Amino acid sequence: MSLSLILNILKKVAFHSLFWGAVLFFYMFFFAIKDSDLWLSAQFSLALMPVTIGTTYTFAYTLIPNYLSKRKYFLFGLYSFYALVISASLIIFSAFYGYLLSAGLEWEGSYPVSKGLTFIFFAVYLVIALGCGLSLTKSYFKTLNKNEELKNTLLENELQLKIQELQYLKMQIHPHFLFNTLNTIYGLALTKKDSAPGMILKLADLLDYILYETKKNKVPLQREIQHLKDYIALEKLRFGERLIAEISIAEFSLDIEIPPMLFLPFLENSFKHGKSSDGILNLKLKLEIIENQLLFFLKNSVAERKELLDQNSGIGLENIQKRLKHIYAEAYNLEVSMTEKFYSVSLKIPIKF
């Protein structure tokens, strides 16, 4: 038997002993009067203790948990009736025995019995009701604690699943981005263009961001903006004069943080699908704060309606919508607009310092 179990048993024994000791004192003073002998009242009270304790435990540990708590109301009522009849008989017997024990054969003038059976029944059943009430209260809080523990366990498991899913979604974004960038560098290497080394350096900076910053739940907004600028600079080397970019980024507080890699999938898809019919990519990027919300707006030219639809089916965009749902629930707003010539994304998220 473990020490904790032994201590728990000792605590229960001590509590029950104190409770029944208090009940005994209640009986002694309830059945005593000024000119009566307190010892006689104690003898009479001791005679009532067995039936009081037995009836209380019968209700508290048998009838209530096995029938009332399980909604077996008919059986609870039936067995309760039996218990009350038996306890009433035992109370009468105990009272008579207590009278004989405390007062001998002198009936008149003996206070405990002269109190009347009505008061004896009242005192005993009051204690029984109190004992059952304490037991019910204890069971209620015990059940409440179990439900709270179960709820916390479920929430913790759900949180772990969400964290794992978010990590999985971010890991999906990285290969998608790397594949596109490496494919670009490969194309430049085949043509032996001088811009290839510069692209490799930019890619190294982006990989540094991906390997270290995206492991965090939040990153400074300024760091994310620099990431976007590096990506645009990387693509500028590939597109050259075929890229017409209008970038408008407001000044932001250094304390603003957002989830990492939140805007890159939108920008990535713009470069992937954003060529117009003449081969020119028109790109407009805006970042600003409006009414305590961070607005990310991106608009790019497209060549065909088919490419517009393809932008909605990319791995990055699908994952970013799942991430937004996990992180912000209903507190974000994402709007996608498509026309014959332009594709635009407007995302609003609450800012947190």
UniProtKB/TrEMBL annotation:
One GO cellular component term: membrane
Coiled coil: none
Domain of life of the source: Bacteria
Keyword Thylakoid annotated: no
SUPFAM superfamilies: MFS general substrate transporter
Organism name: Zunongwangia pacifica
Keyword Kinase: yes
Domain Signal transduction histidine kinase internal region: 165-243
Pfam families linked to this entry: His_kinase (PF06580)
Keywords: Kinase, Membrane, Transferase, Transmembrane, Transmembrane helix
UniProt name for this protein: Sensor histidine kinase
Signal sequence, start to end: none
Record-level Gene Ontology MF annotations: phosphorelay sensor kinase activity
Transmembrane segments: 12-33, 39-61, 73-97, 117-136
